[in-house]
Amino acid sequence: MNTFLARLNAVAKTPPPWNLVTALLAVVAAFVFVVLGTLVGGAWFGGPIEALPPFAQLVGWLIAAVLTALFVLQTRRAAPDRDALRMTPASIPIPLILFVAFGAAIAVDLIAVILAGGVFAPAPELLAFAQGSAAAAPGFREWAVAVVLMVAAQPVADGLVFRGLLLPSLRSALGGIAGILAQAVIYAAFHYLAFTPAYAQGQGVSLVYGVVVPLLEGVVLGVVRILAGSTTAAIFAHAAFGLFAIAKLVVIIT
């Protein structure tokens, strides 16, 4: 246990070639892309911004994730930056990371169900399909975009911003474990603001699934990033969380 904590608390002697303000600005840019993507989704598929069809929301969030990933990769083109992003092979086998992360997703969801008083609810990004009318039930195109968003685009975008840029900066500024926790708090706040959940069961459930779940997920993904020494590993772990979210939606609506 002491060795595990020591590894989490160990901070690289050389700080990343960007500062904390730059990393936080990347988080702000990611949020701006969510707003822009939502506007584009609404323009393409109709509906007022406050009541977008579920498919338009998914497309908007997918666009936002792609723009976020491109933004980070475009602004971090220098070799030292790319090295510091740690988009390298993981020191832990990817199948093992996927297996453990999927198990962690189940554990986090069990905690959420307990805190929410037994409410078994979907991820905020997929909420419209579980709370909408029969007309809102996802078809093939909705499922396709949801899978790409939750299992590929969002893990890459969030991985680059939060585990690639922000986490190393926070660990350099605050220390190892404190940096992981701070990254998780910012990650949770970002997700709550970006995908503002409105669960029919009330504000308490919205806070559990909109704040507590991404907070715990952020801790898990931060730990994976440090232990595996790779942002790529954290992206695969996030993909496992996304896969669990898709599987959970299937269970809820069938």
Notes on the structure:
- The chain is an all-alpha fold.
- The protein has one domain.
- It is built from ten helices and no strands.
- Helix 5 crosses helix 10.
- The model has no long low-confidence stretch (mean pLDDT 91).
Provide a count of the helices.
10
What does the radius of gyration come to?
18 Å
| Share of helix, binned | over 70%
Task: Please state roughly what percent of the residues sit in beta strands, choosing from under 5%, 5-15%, 15-25%, 25-35%, 35-45% or over 45%.
Answer: under 5%
- The secondary-structure class comes to mainly alpha
What is the number of beta strands?
0
Query: H/E element string?
Result: HHHHHHHHHH
Largest sheet: none
Cα separation of the termini: 42 Å
Mean pLDDT: 91
Tally of domains: 1
pLDDT below 50 for ≥5 consecutive residues: which ranges? none
Shape: globular
Q: What does the oligomeric state look like here?
A: single chain
